[in-house]
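I would like you to sit down with the pair of lines that follows and say whether tokens and residues agree.
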Amino acid sequence: MYSESKEITATDWWALGDTPVRRDSRVTYYVDGQATFMEMCLCFMRATRSIYLANWGMEPDMLLVRGEDLLPEQPEQDTRATYIEGLRTQGLQEADINFWLTHRLSVKEVLAYAQSKGVEVKVLLWKAKKAFAVYDPQAAHDKLTELGITCLLDDSAEGILHHQIESLHQKVTVVDHKIAFVGGLDPLIEKEDDFDRWDTSEHPFDTPLRRTSSGKSPHGWHDTHAKITGLAAGDVELNFRQRWNDLIARHHLEQLHIPEQPVPAPVESQSIVQIARTVPKHTYSFDKDAILGITQLYDHAFTNAQQSIYLENQYFWQRAYYGVDISLLGRDSAEMEQHIGQIIEALRRGVTMSIILPDHPNVGRAFSDAALIRLRNEAPEAVKESRLHAFCLATSHFKMEDGLLHYRPIYVHSKAAIIDDTWSTVGSGNLNNRGMHDDTEINVATLDSFLAHGLRLLLQAEHIGLLKPEELAAAARLHREQNLDTQAQALAEKSFQQMEEALHDPFQAVQLMRQRAEENLQRYKDREPLVGHLLPYLTAAEATQHNLNVRADHGWIEEPDAH
């Protein structure tokens, strides 16, 4: 496994004016909802002091743990014993294990259980306007408060000083004042029964584990998240405490004030870590001059890039979208104009860039098209030398009822960036005006070649279908430095070695991605099963050239009768 640590130069990577750069914190990356929510659930069950959550959206009835991560209904005795011992190994006490085995592990039930043990539970949810909400904030609030959980709806983005679609977009979890999570995943299933955030790395076309009460099977969902320990976890808690206390002061709820806590203990780590935020001016009392840390991180990252830029993002907008999907009508976005210019300069000096985007973003597909076209037009040598590629993700499935093969796009919600296999970031900030300037966001960035390189390998291996699901899961556990038994350790090391052999060089890895995407495009045209999930991201004009039916709202992969 790759363990070489590149020498850290004096190159500046960090944001100024908000949170410190830490050398005593540890970051662990998680890919997709299954692994992320499993780890969150375990942390909630082990909690002894406090659980704080701040989310863009939440469905309290959403199951955090499903499928193979649960004990079978009628297990063999040795299977049951092994499973229970595994929970003990994860630090659960006997009462916790009994709860785990006898209850639905939904958000609300796990939080209520923690509170029943004396754990302080506080939930902060964005009070989304009905016109823009994908969930019902009041219903979520009521489900939690009925169980005695303190939940506040944060209206800090409302008022004449805010743009109409400003949102409080952070996905923050803090447990026991020492463990934090940030990333792209809310514990949410959207109100139309689509876009369930829990998904596996296989992103199946249809599975009972994601089927809703209405019988609908949500689109696949690809995302990334990070767990943080050490002093940087305290920076995440500071963010939660600032937001919470600002809100309760405005609404005269001082009895709910959260006092400052001692900083978490330092942890041994080879990483350099920083928490960065976007908080628009006038949203909270602590942001009178706007906090623009995430765009600063990207400023340095794109400027520093010498070999490779790997991006996953929901959006890639040069201009700001405000309701009309015509890029020329969008307002200027100074931050994204600068970032796209920085990427063009990187491409001109020989950097290889790949970006994973959704074929069907919820808004603004034309805006991503326009930004990609600009890259291609202003760095033609990168196109000629096969150093610039955009991809999307999809899944396929043969339906017995009609005897046909069907395709669905996988929604890319991940906000991850990896530069030169050295620096990486995961968080809630999208590559658009909102993530860089207009919404409240939070990211974690690390300077650590072990983390950056390993995350790139795991993501690319998932997308091209390089490994079997159990092999990819074992490799991910190895990258997270989890304790493995002898058999699992051997599988993990073999799987990681296979990823190394195929994907170690960033340029060659992108060529494998390009090849797989082109092969899958032909399979799509021939109505054959996809291998892995990669397809080329096609602009509307390119899709038309391929005689594909592209629709502004749904892209070219989605079948018209799916809606």
